[in-house]
Protein 1
Amino acid sequence: MKSNIILWTLLAIFINIPLFAQDKIVTKKGDTLKVYIIKSFKATNSKKLSYKIAQESTSEEVLLPSQVQYFNANGNYESVLISSEGSENQYLFLQKAIDKGKVHLYKGIDEQGNPDFFIRKDDKVIIVDKLNLTAFIEKFFLDCPNFAKERYLPAKIENYRQDYLMDLISYYNNCSDSQTYPYIQYYSFPKPKRKDEIHFGVKAGGGIQEYAYRSFSTTANLNLYGTGVFNPKMSLAGGIYANVQYGKIFSTHLELLFLYRNAKSTDGAINMRFSGLNIPFILEFNLFNKKKTHPFINAGLNSVVGIGSKYTVTPPSGFQILRPLSMSPVSFGSLIGGGIYLDTANKPIKIEARFSYDFFEVNNITIGSDKMRNANFMIMASYPLL
């Protein structure tokens, strides 16, 4: 293949055949010129056409758009009358990009080599507004009833490019007459970047809890420290939260709640009142997320920092306390929950059932079979503010 190219080149030089094909210009008078168009945007652009009569010629000839019908030079060009609001209409040399359908597309080149784009609609040729591309599309393309606005709007200045505009016009022509003009995809839309949404809101709830020692070493300890059965005493919480939504299914939540607990052992020996800061960190998964009202499940880590506490111990007569009773200022545990997002006229309200279990308290380290248990069940409601 390479040897054939060399052979033809030598043959052309030997018999003096031009290696470059001539270009054709058709003037307004109907004359056809066989010339060599200069392929430089500085010499040939939308406002002038420079050419040579002979390839070896050093002189250049110039034609204006008002003197030419069309010409061929690495593409089909024609002299087009541009409609301009507030200024005199003018002819420009424009290259055809799409010339079939309700809307046509043309491309022009200015003196600096920068592209300009034009559309023909309703027998008028109008320049595409680069700086207000969204408003331009809304003005000239939304008359098609089935036009997908979310596909092309909003349009940024980066979309002022030939493949994007060809795709837009092909889609519009197909939208206007799908049987005559099939849609041809010219532009590959970039996949939208995942936007992690950050929300803030308020949260409050109430429930019941157990807060008592358990010991399985002796029957006496069991009677004093409580049987471990869930004590139906009130627990209240309220505060703020922040969450980051990763897509539509997964989110993380961090809460800062004021917590009040009131507990009593089942044998009546221990009464406690406790207030502190509850700081849960939660992983949440939305189910059937395509619906505005949908369920969810979550799980996470739970921590409590004590602010104030008050407790009383009334052991049975003759009972020996084996270790002092104390309230731990910091505790850690786990939680699980679930609920539903309820769609409202303003913002979705979150209703949640949560069970937490603190398995480690700083001041009450497990000794043998002696355990500290803090189990909490609450019904909570959340409302987003931002």
Protein 2
Amino acid sequence: MKKITTALLVLSFISIPLFSGCQSKQLQEENAVLKGQVDTLNAERATLSEKVKNLTTENSALKSQVEGLTKDREELTAKAADLEKQLAEAKTPKGKKK
């Protein structure tokens, strides 16, 4: 019994480092894969950040353009209303002004 226990103990001491080495190699491979994924995600994040920056700049420019066009539209609408008023006054006979 003592010999069997000793043999199992020696076998354990020999086999544990082998299994640990296998696990260590597997973990190193997984770690390398994960590092690659992190690098890929960081590159994608940088690309997306640049796109967001460009879109924000473009959005600001478009908002300014819309504001300018809105102001022009309001001015043109006021001028059109004034011209319509002048036209209506011109069509009204001079003797029948209200």
